[in-house]
Amino acid sequence: MNTSEMNDQQVAGLAAAICATAEAMGQEMNPGTAAMMAEDLCAYSVSAVKAALKACRFEVKGKLAMADILQRVQAADGRPGKDEAWAIAMTTNDEFETVVLTDEIQLALAAAKPVLDAGDKIGARMAFISAYERFVAQARGDVKPVNWHVSVGFDASRRTAAITKAVQMQRIPQERGQLYLADLSVAPVTEDGRALAGLITGEVTRPTPAVRERLQGVKASMMKMRAASAERKDEMRIEAANELADRRALLLRQVEELASGRVSHG
Predict the structure, then answer these.
(1) How far apart (Å, rounded) are the C-alpha atoms in residues 72 and 167?
(2) What share of the chain has pLDDT > 90, as a percent?
(3) Is residue 109's pLDDT more than 70?
(4) How many Cβ atoms from other residues are within 10 Å of residue 214's Cβ?
(5) Which of 12, 74, 162, 165 is the most buried (most CB within 10 A)?
């Protein structure tokens, strides 16, 4: 993949910045070498490369090398480190939890799942990290931007919290977060929807009496559920298990689609 984000003028400016950085680090660099490095970095954004050059001036001891710049550009692409990625992956075990995860986390989790299902959590973690680092390296080598997506859980309130947190951490844009809420029937385009979307926007709006009545209905249903007979509870558990199986099947299809996409672009 070589989709340049810089025009010729920006590449020339970047070459000059590389020369200046090398000079600030006590090194003389041939303009032709700097131009070659700038061409190699042109698939990334100007701001990302300039931030990496600044980091090199403070952190690198010795001569400026292409590997130093590239390492810092890639580390700032928004992909979580291996330990955070594993923690995110583990939250998918709770079928009620809505999880915001990257393509690489989902692929690595699929690779580690047989070990995890066998009950070897330590081995599963090792398998996950090995696969995750491989998928991340491949994505970065292809200059593929990070892609965060939502795996929806059964608990509607947790959906709102998970998507709101993802927006706050800038993992998904605010507009996309509001669309997620709308698609999940959490934030319809009404005064009630704006009240829920206020969790993201900060705007405070009162829900209508109709929504308050619906909430009372939910509360009544919960009370009824608590009073349900043992037989009905078993039926509800079976229904929940079927829903979980459908969710896992959907996740598996997504993994297969991601994997097939990698093969076709490999």
Answers:
(1) 24
(2) 39
(3) yes
(4) 13
(5) 162
Give me the domain span that covers residue 243. Answer: 82-265
Tell me, yes or no, whether 2 lies in a domain: no
Q: What is the DSSP code (8-state) at residue 93? A: G
Give residue 194's region: left, alpha or beta (phi > 0; psi -120 to 50).
alpha
Local confidence band at 236 (pLDDT 50, 70, 90 cut-offs)? low
Q: Tell the residue number behind the tokens 């993994």, with chain if given.
A: 255
Instruction: Answer positive or negative: Cα dihedral of 107, 108, 111, 116.
Output: negative
| Count of the separate structural domains present in the chain | 2
CA distance 165 to 27: 44
Q: How far is CA 37 from CA 22, 32, 93, in A?
A: 12, 9, 44
Among 224, 194, 191, residue whose Cα is nearest residue 209: 191
CA distance 261 to 266: 8
Q: Are residues 51 and 130 in the same domain?
A: no
